[in-house]
Batch of 2 targets.
Target 1
Amino acid sequence: MTDRPEDAFFTLHADLPREGPGETADVAWAAELAGLKPDARILDAASGPGGDIGALLRAAPSGHVTAIDLHAPFIIAAQARWGVDARVTLLTGDMTAPEGPFDFIWCAGAVYFLGVEAALRAWTPRLAPGGVIAFSEPCLFTDTPSEGALAFWEGYPRLTDAAGIAAQVAAAGFTTLATRRIGDIGWESYFRPMEARIARLRPGADAALSAVLDQAEAEIALWRAHRAETGYLLSLVSPA
Ligand SMILES: C[S@@+](CC[C@H](N)C(=O)[O-])C[C@H]1O[C@@H](n2cnc3c(N)ncnc32)[C@H](O)[C@@H]1O
């Protein structure tokens, strides 16, 4: 193999069931609290390979899910799983582009690319009356985080705690209806398939790929060591 660093990254990340932490129960929690109707129009913003599409359809069996991601190979992977389902539209593009209107915007592990305030402002005109948004965002669960906990997010400049996230939500003109931490099952649903893939890729990996595999293993170890101090907070929000 002669991977460049970015190719090596996607060699590791291709064909994983999901690209960030989360589980079916997170979607069910948000959908139930949101009072989602069976025919809800849903946006899965930055869907990755579509790991949450099944849970979103279970929450709205006669609804429609528009799933969009910037990285075309993830959408191609989602196509293989959901391409024949008429309830699903798969798009390559920016997560703020689909015009809607949507009853529910779901964004797992990707609002940090834009920032909470910017993402919510961009989605405001895309929400149907009564529509809600659920998103997960890096969060500190302690006032005294260790260096390891801070290092896990690699200096993410907006890293804050639950009150800080709620303040960003309010600044965008939204109210926080409820929050919950993404639990260990959600994180392991992301990390365990990645570990299996690392083990498969190790033999014969070139220097670029080895570096990416080392980094991924270090990230997994860092989260396991500091998971009481930091993680993702899932917030359910509605326009104020
Ligand atoms: C941590 S992954 C989460 C993916 C998916 N929600 C999941 O939980 O499996 C973040 C995703 O955001 C996508 N992404 C980043 N910026 C984006 C943007 N502006 N519009 C659409 N997708 C974006 C990346 O391509 C990547 O698939």
Target 2
Amino acid sequence: MKQTVGSEQAIVLGGSMAGLLTARVLSNHFAQVTILERDAVHDRPESRKGQPHTRHLHGLLGGGFQIFNHYFPDLVETLAQSDIFFGDMGENMNWYTHGGYRRPVHTGLYGATMSRPFLEYQVRQRVLALPNVTLWDNCAVKQLLTSPGGQQVRGVLLEKRGEDGANTSLDADLVVDCTGRGSRTPQWLKELGYEAPPESEVKVDIGYASRLYRRDPHDPRGQQWTLFTPDAPGETRFAGIFPIEDGRWIISMGGWGGDHCPGDEAGFLAFARSLPALDIYNIISKAEPLSDIIAHKMPSSLRRHYEKMARFPQGLLVLGDAVSSFNPTYGQGMTSAAMQARELDQLLAKRPSLQKLAPAFFKRAAKVVDIPWQMAVGEDFRFATTTGPKPPGTDFINRYVAKVNRASHHDAVVSAAFLQVMNLLAPPTSLFHPGVLWRVLRGGKTAAAAPTYQPVQSITQTGHHV
Ligand SMILES: Cc1cc2nc3c(=O)[nH]c(=O)nc-3n(C[C@H](O)[C@H](O)[C@H](O)COP(=O)(O)OP(=O)(O)OC[C@H]3O[C@@H](n4cnc5c(N)ncnc54)[C@H](O)[C@@H]3O)c2cc1C
């Protein structure tokens, strides 16, 4: 007899961005959704111990923003009432790469800059306002509970912190692991007699350092996002500065292959000064710091191929960074999690059998991850220090993408096409469309010409709040 996925209780492990988005979509299909989060969670924007990366610059790509807006239709309106900056991702992006600024172009693709804790708080409030979703904080999940042969996950064992380490069990029809890169599902699977999923790991040895500064709300530079990305292999450094809520700037800088941004005052400023243009240095050398300099190391991009497993227990899924954690400089993690959650929503709407749910979901999740993975890893292989499985055709694609980057200094069509791909709104193959290809090949020849960057004042006139 076909056993369909039960619709009573779903449990989500981890209450960060992937966990919240997953709870949102599960609320469409289950009577009760419970999020279990190890940290204490307060009713305010915060960076918790279990997600130290949220203290660094986070950009939400256009592809992710669209999904967030779908599941939280009032989000834009609320952001508009706060002091969040909205802008066209082409017009308001001040992006220096491959020896010049990309040509500003109207894309109709809007983005907003805010701190990661602020965005997560907005999402969390909306998810917890749903009548069938609850969050239990201070709950560390210790183990999966299964049917006697280990074939079906039936719940979890958890430790409620602050209650003398008391262990409690919670039953569920479906458990979704959203505990991030450090997910223990591979270990739990082995304990249950399954294989761990095969992994792909591409070592990048990235070192970030980030800091908050006070921002004058009248400073026109606060109407832009500024990014620096390197022309590898000669350059290895990246940086970004975003205007965020509460009159602040957030800046993150770093480098590939061990060229890490120092965490001391003088080293941090010197790193900003070493970038090919002084936009960031000019801001932070005069602005008042509002935080310490915080460092974060990211050794590798790591992907777990659950889609390749021959045996997997029923009633268990894995989503978000626990499936794939990318080199963060490409800003893909939240969008990948949102796309995976949307796939889960669409799959559950088809009421699959319990046996088919995990293989079908992991197949869909792998399809979602394939593109950002190939983009991130492919780009990383422009650096001689990167090691790991290199996708076929990477060198050819990288040579072409370098031309795309140079052509985007001059050519608005190429610039817009690139932004669509980078925002995960168009497939990378769209850069080979004849209408783009001939411009790239022509633009590449004029790459040495002066960049067409417009002074900030003129761009400000096009920036706006929704
Ligand atoms: C430096 C840096 C910069 C980044 N910049 C960007 C960016 O610009 N744009 C972007 O889209 N993405 C970015 N990312 C990636 C992004 O942060 C993640 O993709 C996103 O947070 C989704 O992660 P997640 O929810 O899957 O996991 P996480 O954010 O790691 O959350 C896991 C959660 O699970 C909880 N947990 C762990 N173990 C247990 C347990 N046993 N029981 C209960 N709870 C548990 C943790 O406390 C935590 O809350 C960046 C990442 C890094 C490291």
